Amino acid sequence: MKYRIFGKTNLKVSEIGYGTWQIANDPHMWVGATKEESKKSLAKYLELGGNFIDTAWVYGYSEEKPERHPSEELVGEFIKESNNRERVVIATKVAPANWHWPAWKTDKLSDCFPSEHIKKQVDDSLKSLQVDFIDLVQFHVWNDSWSDEQEWKDTIQEIIKSGKVKNWGISINDYQPSNCLKTLDTGLISTVQFIYNVFHQKPVEKLLPYAKEHNIGLIARVPLDEGGLSGKIDSNTTFQEGDFRSSYFSSDRLLELEERIEELSCLLSEEIQSVSELALRFILTHPEISCVIPGMRKIKHVIDNTAVSDKGSLSSTLMEELKKHSWERNFYPDDAKDPNMADTNFLEI
């Protein structure tokens, strides 16, 4: 496993991080995970050199048990039982108070992140994770229009002084990679988590150059396009009840995905064994990116994904070829759309 400096946090993180949304058996998003298998997968991840675990207050949330935070609790149990706190960098997220994912253009800071809401969620996460401090807490959505407001600035600086949180970051709105640059100019945000993959390449235009110049740690999420770039989903794929991908990948989208994966498969060689390897190496070829966080529910996923760190960068010729495979789109259902962005459906243009 190779490691990279995590921007101005100066933490050293493994190139392959561990995304934990999938392991929480989220009743409305990702279903099918078990606690036993998830803990074994986490153990294998640490055994193979991984040290960055990304979770969130909301992962696994259920209206029946709103006080529970299943993903954080599972991570906390694992770390305590294995006595590995000093080996891992823990990142979590504060959920927006109004439950808008992504944040709407008209949302105010007071709608999403009032001071007392931030403080309470940090305390919740500390309790769920069973730790004295959290290495990184991220706002789970963001609007750059909030960059000049003083409340969030005072709040996060107060929390840092308390010792509860070491660094603050932003998990920016899906498909809006520039909706944070003014906020980064404040100097108070150390990291950005953003969607980046072979299909969604827009972050390379503005975010990556900014991060390189200003030493911002970058976490690439959805690297396999919710499984689309795993090479294991085709037009015949069906999903379990409760798995959001049943709407994310409708029948016509599955057909187009299958065609695009066939095109990517033509780029495989003795050096590149699978589409998922190609997708992860595409991201890690950018030195500005600190780590990539695929979801890994099974031990096999952990073994396959962590092995990519040893494979190195792709050639400049192949990286240029992959630019042709950009597929800028998103699949938000109608009831999740921001009515103020009806023409673009959240896409940054």
Question: Any overview of this molecule?
Answer:
Helices cover 33% and strands 12% of the residues. With 349 residues, the protein is an alpha/beta fold. The chain has one domain (3-341): TIM Barrel, CATH 3.20.20. β7 (165-171), α6 and β8 form a beta-alpha-beta unit. α1 (35-47) packs across α2, α1 (35-47) runs parallel beside α11 and α2 (70-82) crosses α4. The protein is globular, with a radius of gyration of 19 Å. Residues 15-325 form the NADP-dependent oxidoreductase domain. GO terms for molecular function: oxidoreductase activity. Keywords: Oxidoreductase.
Properties at a glance:
single chain, about 350 residues, alpha/beta, TIM Barrel, two-stranded antiparallel sheet, 12 helices
The number of distinct structural domains comes to 1
Strand content: 5-15%
Helix and strand string, N-terminal first?
A: EEEHEHEHHEHEHEHEHHHEHH
Q: What is the CATH level 1 assignment?
A: Alpha Beta
Tertiary shape = globular
For the terminal residues, how far apart are their CA atoms?
36 Å
Q: What is the topology, as strand order, of the major beta sheet?
A: 3-4-5-6-7-8-9-10
Task: Please outline what is shown here.
This protein has about 350 residues and is α/β, with parallel strands linked by helices.
Topology summary:
Layout: E1 3-5, E2 12-14, E3 18-19, H1 35-47, E4 52-54, H2 70-82, E5 89-94, H3 109-112, H4 115-129, E6 134-139, H5 150-162, E7 165-171, H6 181-184, E8 191-195, H7 207-214, E9 217-221, H8 245-248, H9 251-265, H10 275-284, E10 291-292, H11 299-307, H12 316-322
Parallel strand pairs: 3-4, 4-5, 5-6, 6-7, 7-8, 8-9, 9-10
Antiparallel strand pairs: 1-2
